[in-house]
Design a protein that fits this description.
The chain has 857 residues and is an alpha+beta fold. It is 16% helix and 41% strand. The chain is globular.
C-alpha cells in the first residue's frame, strides 16, 4: 500500500517489513496522534486456513495481555478483505539479529532473560503458553526493553495443532505427524508431541540464555530430526567450557531451565526471574574484560589442563575442603493471619518476640509471641507500632500511627512495659526511634522545617537530610549509629550510613541502592546487616563493615525486610507482598474501577472531566526511572508517556508534568498525544510537587532552592526566572496537597497553625481560610470557587470533605476503602473532579509473614 492509504483511522506511512505472515506497515493513528505498526494478511494468504488461524490467534493471545515486555496489541479489523492487527511500533532489532553480530555479555544476557521471564509470567498468569520462543520472536528495542512477539502458536485453551521449523529457525513445510515449533528451542515434551504447559516455555528460555552468552545454539544437528534427538538425549556443553567469564550461578540456573523432566525445572517464570535477579547483584566482569577473555579462552583452556595436572595433589585437597557443606539457615514462620506486620523485635531474653500488626483489616495492635506458645498474645495498649525494645523490657511505640511515606510511620512516641499498662507519651511527630544500649535514652527521627532530622538525645541534631532518614540503630557498644539516608522524601532509594553517637560527620558506607529497608547490627557488632536491592523489589540480606566491605548474608524467594537481630544470632525478618494500586469512580459510574497496571501504580492527577488518570508505575518492569502513564477511567489500557515521576495533567490534557527521580531539579513536559518531550530547568529548585495554572502557561512548584526551606514557586513555560509566592520559614505543602483557585489568582496549601492559607500569585499578604485536621490537605476547588474539597491524608478509611470557602462549613463527601481491607495500610494520592462526582485514589496493601531465622552468619 502506498503512503497515505487509510485503513480505518490509520494512515499508512511506509512499508517496514515483509514476511510469510504478510506485510508490516508504519502508520499514524489519526485519533491519538501516535505512530503504530499494522500487520496485514493479504487476501491470498488469508485463504490459507492455517495462516489465517495463526494470524488470528496471535492477535487474540497478545491482545489478552498488557505487559511492558510483550508487544501491545491496540486494534484488529479487516481492510478490503485483508485481516489486520494494529500494535505498538517497535524500534530496534530482533534478538536473532543482535546475536548474529556477537554473543552478549553475561550482564546483558541476565538482564534480557529477566525481562523475558517477567513477560512470560504475565502470559502464563492468563493461561497462555507461547510454545515458540526463540531469538527471532524476541525484539530488543532501542532503549533496551525486550518485547515478546508472535503468539501464533500460543496455547490458549485445550490442545491446539503445533508447527515446526528447521534447525536454522526457518519455517518448514507442514507434514503429517510432525509437530510444529522450532527445532532447537522445543522442550522434550513438545518434541514427543505431548501436551505442554508453561514449563515448556521455561525450557526455551534456557536455550535462549545459553545462546546469548555463548553465541552457540544449545541443541543443534545437521537435520531437524537429529536436532530433536539431541534435545531428548544430550546436554549442551558446559558454559564454563564455552567461556571463562560466566559465573557458575548462571550455569546452574540455565541447567535447571533445561532439565529434561518438566517437574525438575523452575516451576514458574517468576521463580526464574527471582533466581536471575540474584545474579545481578554479583560483580560480573565488565564488557571489555569479557571480550579479552573470550579471545583468549582456547589458549587458557590448554594452560588450565597443564596446571591441573601439575597441581593435582594440592588441588584435590582444596576441592575436598570446599565441598564441606555450609550449615543452611532455618526459617520458622511465626505468623499465619492475613495482614501487615509493621514492626518486630526480640525481648531481652532473645527468644520472645514483640511485634505490631494489623490483621484482617483491624487496627494496628501490639502482640507478644513466646517460643513455648503457638499463639500470639495481644498487649493491652492502644493502637500502636512497635519501634524498639530496651534491655530492661520497655517498648518504644508510636501511638496513633499513620503512614508518612514508603516504610515510614509517624505518630506520638511513647514508652510502655512489656506487660502492658498506660503508655507514657514522650514526643509528637516522631517517625523512628531506637533505645540506646543503656535502655534510658532514645535516638529518634522526625521532620522539622521541611528536613528529616536524626536526633540523639532528643533535641540534639546529629544529621539532617533533605530527603528522609530511616532505621537508626545503635552499635552494641553505643558508640555509633547506623541508618539509611534517602535522597528523596517518599522514596526508599538510599544509602547505608554511620555516624558517631557523640556527634560528628556522617559517613556513607554504600550508596546507590534501589530499595533499602530494615537494618540492625550483626551479633558480633562487626557488621551492619540490612535488606536491600540494587534493582527491582527483591530485597536480600546484606552485611557491611564500617570500613565498607559488603557481602551477601542470605537470599530468599521474595522481598525480605530485616526486623531485628538477637545477640544469640537469631534473626527476625518479614517476607512482604507489597502492592500499590489505583481505584477510580468514572463519570456516571456506579462502581469503582481498578486501574492498577503492574505492582506499584500510584495516582498523580485526575482530569477535570474525570475521564483520565495520570499515574506513575514504580515496579522494576517499568524501568529504572519509573514510567509515567495515562489511563482512561473506564478501564481501557493505559498509554505509557515516558519515564519519570508524574505530577499533573495540563488543563487541556495535552501535557503531563513529571521529573526523573534521579534529577528532581529538572521538569519534564511529556506530550499525551503528538509532540516532543520538553525539559525545563526551574532555577535550581528541588521539585517535590507541581501543578498547572488554569491558563496552561504557568506551573506552580513545591520545593526547595538549594538548602532552603520548602516554598511555593511560580514558573512560566518560557523558562523565565522562577518566583516564590510564599514565605520561606514555613512548611508550605509539607503535608502534601496544593491547589489553585479557578481564576488562577492564588494557591491554597496548608500553612501555619494548621490552617489552609491562600497565597496570592501577584504578591501580597496570604490569608487563612479555615482550620483543618492535622492530617488534612486541600485537593481541588469547585468550578465556581465556592467550595474546596479536602481529604484526610493516609488514613483508613480515606475521607473526602467539601468545605465552604467563605465560612468554613464542612460536610463529608466520600469515604474511600477497597472492599478487601486486609493489609491495606494507606489511602492516599486522592484526586477529585470540580463537581465532586468522580474521584481516584491510591491504596497500599502489604501482606506480611514473620519468620524467625537461625543459622545465619
Amino acid at each position: 500500500m502506498n503512503p497515505g492509504t487509510r485503513i480505518g483511522p490509520y494512515e499508512v506511512v511506509e512499508l517496514v517489513a515483509t514476511g510469510g505472515m504478510g506485510q508490516v506497515y508504519k502508520a499514524l493513528d489519526t485519533r491519538l496522534g501516535r505512530e503504530v505498526a499494522i500487520k496485514i494478511l493479504p487476501p491470498a494468504l488469508a485463504a490459507d486456513e492455517d495462516r489465517l488461524r495463526r494470524f488470528e490467534q496471535e492477535a487474540r493471545a497478545a491482545g489478552m495481555l498488557n505487559h511492558p515486555n510483550i508487544m501491545a496489541i491496540y486494534d484488529v479489523g479487516t481492510h478490503e478483505g485483508a485481516p489486520y492487527v494494529v500494535s505498538e511500533l517497535l524500534l530496534g532489532q530482533t534478538l536473532r539479529e543482535l546475536l548474529d553480530e556477537a554473543p552478549l555479555t553475561p550482564r546483558k544476557a541476565v538482564d534480557f532473560t529477566i525481562q523475558i521471564a517477567h513477560g512470560l509470567d504475565a502470559a502464563h498468569g492468563k493461561g497462555i503458553v507461547h510454545r515458540d520462543l526463540k531469538p527471532d520472536n524476541l525484539f530488543v528495542s532501542t532503549d533496551g526493553m525486550i518485547k515478546i512477539l508472535d503468539f501464533g502458536l500460543a496455547k490458549l485453551t485445550g490442545n491446539t495443532r503445533l508447527g515446526m521449523a528447521g534447525a536454522d529457525g526457518k519455517p518448514q513445510t507442514t507434514e503429517a505427524g510432525i509437530v510444529f515449533g522450532t527445532a532447537g528451542y522445543m522442550s522434550p515434551e513438545q518434541v514427543r508431541g505431548k501436551d505442554v504447559d508453561h514449563r515448556s516455555d521455561i525450557f526455551a528460555v534456557g536455550t535462549i540464555l545459553y545462546e546469548m552468552v555463548t553465541g552457540d545454539r544449545a541443541f543443534t544437528g545437521p537435520t531437524p530430526v537429529e536436532t530433536l534427538n539431541t534435545i531428548l538425549k544430550d546436554e549442551p556443553a558446559a558454559l564454563a567450557e564455552a567461556d571463562g567469564t560466566i559465573p557458575p550461578v548462571l550455569e546452574r540456573i540455565m541447567r535447571r531451565c533445561l532439565e529434561k523432566r518438566a517437574e525438575e525445572r523452575f516451576q514458574s517464570a517468576r521463580d526464574l526471574a527471582y533466581a536471575l535477579q540474584a545474579v545481578t547483584d554479583l560483580k560480573l566482569p565488565p564488557p571489555d574484560l569479557v571480550a579479552r577473555q573470550r579471545a583468549r579462552s582456547r589458549w587458557l583452556r590448554r594452560v588450565a589442563v597443564a596446571v591441573v595436572l601439575v597441581g593435582a595433589g594440592v588441588g584435590l585437597g582444596m576441592l575436598l575442603a570446599s565441598l564441606v557443606p555450609e550449615p543452611n539457615p532455618s526459617y520458622g514462620r511465626l505468623t499465619y493471619r492475613r495482614g501487615m506486620v509493621s514492626g518486630a523485635h526480640f525481648a531481652p531474653d532473645g527468644r520472645t518476640v514483640v511485634y505490631s500488626a494489623s490483621w484482617d483489616g483491624d487496627a494496628m495492635r501490639v502482640f507478644i509471641k513466646r517460643p513455648e506458645s503457638e499463639d500470639s498474645v495481644p498487649v493491652e495498649v492502644p493502637s500502636a507500632v512497635v519501634l524498639s525494645v530496651s534491655r530492661s523490657g520497655e517498648i518504644a511505640i508510636l501511638l496513633h500511627p499513620r503512614v508518612e511515606h514508603y516504610g515510614v510511620w509517624s505518630g506520638t512516641l511513647a514508652r510502655v512495659s512489656l506487660t502492658g499498662g498506660a503508655p507514657r507519651e514522650i514526643a509528637e511527630g516522631i517517625e523512628q526511634a531506637e533505645w540506646a544500649p543503656d535502655g534510658a535514652s532514645l535516638v529518634i527521627v522526625r521532620e522539622s522545617g521541611g528536613r528529616s532530622r536524626l536526633e540523639y538525645p532528643l533535641g540534639r541534631v546529629l544529621h539532617e537530610s533533605a530527603g528522609h532518614i530511616s532505621y537508626p540503630r545503635f552499635a552494641p557498644d553505643g558508640s555509633r549509629i547506623a541508618f539509611f539516608d534517602h535522597p528523596l522524601a517518599g522514596d526508599d532509594r538510599g544509602a547505608v550510613a554511620i555516624i558517631p553517637a557523640a556527634g560528628g560527620e556522617a559517613k556513607t558506607l554504600s550508596a546507590g541502592w534501589e530499595s533499602v529497608q530494615g537494618l540492625a547490627w550483626s551479633p558480633s557488632g562487626r557488621e551492619i546487616w540490612f535488606t536491600g536491592t540494587g534493582g527491582g523489589t527483591l530485597r536480600s540480606l546484606y552485611g557491611i563493615t564500617p570500613g565498607g566491605s559488603l557481602r551477601v548474608v542470605a537470599r530468599a524467594p521474595g522481598p525480605l525486610l530485616l526486623r531485628d537481630v538477637a545477640r544469640s544470632g537469631a534473626v527476625l525478618v518479614t517476607r512482604d507482598d507489597v502492592r500499590w494500586g489505583i481505584f477510580a469512580m468514572p463519570p456516571g459510574g456506579a462502581h469503582e474501577v481498578e486501574l492498577s497496571w503492574l505492582e506499584f501504580s500510584i495516582s498523580d492527577d485526575l482530569s477535570a472531566d474525570g475521564r483520565h488518570v495520570l499515574f506513575e508505575e514504580q515496579t522494576v518492569a517499568a524501568g529504572p526511572n519509573y514510567a509515567v502513564c495515562l489511563r482512561p477511567t473506564d478501564g481501557s489500557p493505559q498509554v505509557r508517556l515516558g519515564e519519570g515521576r508524574a505530577f499533573a495533567l495540563s488543563p487541556d490534557g495535552n501535557w503531563a508534568l513529571a521529573s526523573l527521580p534521579t534529577a528532581a531539579n529538572r521538569l519534564l513536559l511529556l506530550p499525551t498525544g503528538p509532540g516532543e518531550l520538553r525539559q525545563i530547568e526551574p532555577g535550581g529548585i528541588a521539585i517535590e510537587a507541581a501543578t498547572w495554572f488554569p491558563d496552561g502557561q504557568r506551573i506552580l512548584l513545591v520545593g526547595r532552592q538549594w538548602s532552603g526551606h520548602r516554598r511555593l514557586w511560580v514558573l512560566g513555560l518560557d523558562a523565565g526566572p522562577v518566583r516564590p509566592i510564599s514565605p520561606e520559614d514555613i512548611d508550605v505543602g509539607s503535608r502534601g496537597g496544593v491547589c489553585i483557585t479557578p481564576d488562577g489568582s492564588a494557591a491554597a496549601a496548608v500553612g501555619p497553625e494548621g490552617a489552609v492559607w491562600l497565597y496570592p500569585v501577584a504578591g501580597g499578604q496570604p490569608r487563612a481560610l479555615f482550620d483543618v485536621a492535622a492530617n488534612e490537605v486541600p485537593l481541588r476547588f469547585s468550578a465556581d470557587g465556592r467550595y474546596l474539597f479536602t481529604a484526610e491524608r493516609r488514613e483508613l478509611p480515606g475521607r473526602i470533605f467539601r468545605v465552604e470557602v467563605a465560612g468554613g462549613k464542612r460536610e463529608p463527601w466520600r469515604t474511600l476503602l477497597p472492599t478487601d481491607p486486609a493489609g491495606v495500610r494507606v489511602i492516599g494520592n486522592i484526586h477529585v473532579t470540580p463537581d465532586g462526582a468522580s474521584y481516584a485514589y491510591t491504596y497500599s496493601r502489604i501482606l506480611s509473614e514473620l519468620y524467625l531465622v537461625t543459622g545465619l552468619r
